[in-house]
């Protein structure tokens, strides 16, 4: 999980606890372990995973993945046949990627030097199979709508 993802989870937990929600045993153990580490002088950002480590990942990588997930979700929706329960446009993957490159190219770049052409999006479509579902769950770590 990324620091940004962890912050989202902590926000959900705070709202849940504030609304007198039940604290599960797993959450209780997590909090107890975290407080134990903090009492031993550990850095809170490291304990709670709130900063990027030296593994080469950065916040810009997280933003890139969120944006890519949004575009792949759009592609997943438009390839659904028009007569389906959740009607799409019935486009082929190639056509949907071409349309997405035109519609979202600038959105994806946003100051980045990365290239977002139709072929790159098509490769991402097949690389990230879990992002091909038009029905995203709030618990999906790559859900682009969990903000």
Q: Any overview of this molecule?
A:
With 147 residues, the chain is mainly alpha-helical. The protein has 2 domains: 3-47, no CATH class; 59-131, no CATH class. Helices cover 56% and strands 0% of the residues. Helix 4 packs antiparallel against helix 5 (93-109) and helix 5 crosses helix 6 (118-127). The longest helix is centred in the middle third of the chain and has 20 residues, at 59-78. The chain is elongated, with a radius of gyration of 19 Å. The mean pLDDT is 80.
Question: In terms of topology, how is this protein built?
Answer:
Elements: H1 3-18, H2 25-39, H3 44-47, H4 59-78, H5 93-109, H6 118-127
Keywords:
single chain, 147 residues, 6 helices
In short:
Helices cover 56% and strands 0% of the residues. By secondary structure, the chain is mainly α.
Helix segment tally: 6
Helical content class = 55-70%
Low-pLDDT ranges: none
- Kindly state the mean pLDDT as a whole number? 80
The topology string of helices and strands comes to HHHHHH
Rg calc: 19 Å
Number of strands: 0
Shape: elongated
Taken as a percent bin, the fraction of beta residues is: under 5%
N- to C-terminal distance: 15 Å
């Amino acid at each position: 999980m990324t620091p940004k993802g962890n912050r989202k989870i902590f926000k959900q937990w705070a709202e849940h606890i504030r609304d007198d929600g039940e604290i599960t045993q797993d959450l209780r153990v997590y909090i107890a372990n975290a407080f134990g580490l903090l009492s031993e002088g550990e850095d809170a950002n490291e304990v709670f995973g709130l900063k990027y480590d030296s593994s080469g990942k950065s916040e810009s990588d997280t933003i890139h993945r969120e944006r890519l997930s949004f575009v792949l979700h759009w592609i997943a929706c438009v390839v659904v046949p028009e007569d389906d329960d959740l009607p799409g446009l019935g486009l082929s993957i190639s056509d949907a990627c071409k349309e997405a490159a035109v519609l979202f190219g600038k959105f994806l770049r946003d100051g980045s030097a990365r290239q977002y052409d139709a072929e790159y999006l098509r490769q991402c479509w097949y690389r990230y199979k879990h992002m091909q579902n038009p029905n995203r769950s709030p618990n999906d770590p790559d859900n682009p709508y969990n903000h």
